[in-house]
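Whether sequence alone determines local backbone shape is best considered at the level of individual chains. Part of our work consisted of pairing the sequence of a single chain with a tokenised description of its backbone. This step matters because it turns folding into a mapping between discrete strings. For completeness, the protein is quoted in full, as a sequence line and a line of structure tokens:

_____
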Amino acid sequence: MRDLFQVIRLVTMEKKDILYTILFGFLSGIVAISLFAASGYLISKAALVPPLYTLTVLLALLKLCSIARALSRYAERFFSHRATFSILGNVRVSFFEKLEPLASGIFQKYRSGDLLSRIVGDVESLQNFFLRVFYPPIVFVLVFLSTIFFTSFYSVYVALSLLAGMILTGFIIPILFAIRQRDIEQGIQSERGELSTEVTEFFYGFRDLKIYQKLEEKERRLLQLSNLYIREQERKEGLTNFSQTLNTLVANCVSWAIVTLGAYQVVTGKLDGLYLAMLVMISLNVFEYSIPLAAFPVHFEDSRRAATRLFSVVEKNPPLKLELDSGMCNLGQGAIAIDIDKVSFSFSDHTRLVLNQVSLTLSAGSKTAIVGPSGSGKSTLLQLVMKMQNTDEGRILLNGTSIDMIEEESIWKSMNVILQENHFFYGTIKENLLLAKENATDDELKEVLVKVELDGYSLDQPVFEKGENLSGGEKQKLAIARTLLKRSRLWLLDEPTSSMDALTEQNVYRHLFKQAKDDTIVLISHRLTGLEQMDQIIVMDQGMVVESGSFTELMERRGYFYGMKQIEKSVLF
């Protein structure tokens, strides 16, 4: 329920539209009941052959009620739907503001298809919260109480019958079905999330499934999940239809009871027969406002589950950044020094330490290479420096200031980053380059393309989603071109040239080191060639620093790095 209260808070931001919706909904209900009441009275009155002017006045009143009902119903729909669209916008904005700080590490906890299901499906489910859950019960209670108050002037027994019908159709029946609805709705949300996840993986992994001849097996799995989801939906619809049928049955029973009571009171002289048809017509119409409440349990449970699934993503994963206060600071414009002091880290739900008591000192303007076998924690160390993860123990200092006291935007603005996987957006080469420097001229863009040996490509060359039409080497060249454009003072490079040939790699590094002459460079590499120009080489294994020093010092020491170098020589030569 706590998550649903967040939705209610976002709903109440649209106070003006909510008030107008309730007002016109109430007017629509009262005018509709007045229209039916006047019709019943007119029928009875006409049977007594009254003067013509009496019938004329009643007919004019009926026309006026008809026009008023149409206008009030239109206004209700207009304001309620406008409020719904605004509320959905508020939900999306609120969710994105909470999700954005977590984006760097969120995929370690949720699969992309599951996230897509929550962001799209669960938000769309909340559109029914205001239209079907929030204001209809308010309008229902106001209309019913006003009707009961009016009928009590003619017959207390009819008023009590309407009150009993209101309690049954508006509260007791919906509550009973709400209890049954919980288990069904839980199954639907679960099946929808799993189906969305599997469909996403099917499209992402279609090529591999085809290569390894597992396509039919995956298709059968998707068909199975689809059938389960359909069955859960059928159960949900069946329960909803049964609830509406029961509500209608109770409403008709109450109307028959009012006919019986009214007829008895007319016979006994306690009720003027002129008003019997009016009271019956009122009972037939007023229960139209209880029928939507039959679906109330469905939409309430759906909204509650959707809110829980949606906000659990951001509530159970506290943001990596602190709230901005007077203690937060920005990095300067110069080269950046990095101090890593006894840092330990492990991913959530994993007991194995990825980093274990790592301590490093990288002075401003230094050139450092970090080498070691796969899984030794090199890339994770860069993620911690980028503040994409929080350390379990120890601290990281940038220019002598704890990274926890520096705004993320300031950190990322001061970094040139190339990761093992770099994202490229659907568009053109120019549009992907302008991410790094939005005011760059075409000449600047062409210049960096020459430096990374992409001068054969035009700026209007299309780039598919995730750079699917680019080779591995071309993706790395384009990523390096973006960093050359950005011109920040801290370079964090994770295998930036692993897909390039030796000559291209040498040429790209020449331009990169020339531009970063006075900057701080941290290079992660499995290749040990060309590391002679680095000021310091850090050797890692199993999350720990096992050696550090210059290239010459490590070779003379004949330790871990020397052994790695000898293995590389035996493989390459």
Summary: Residues 2-315 form a domain with the ABC transporter transmembrane region fold fold (CATH 1.20.1560.10).
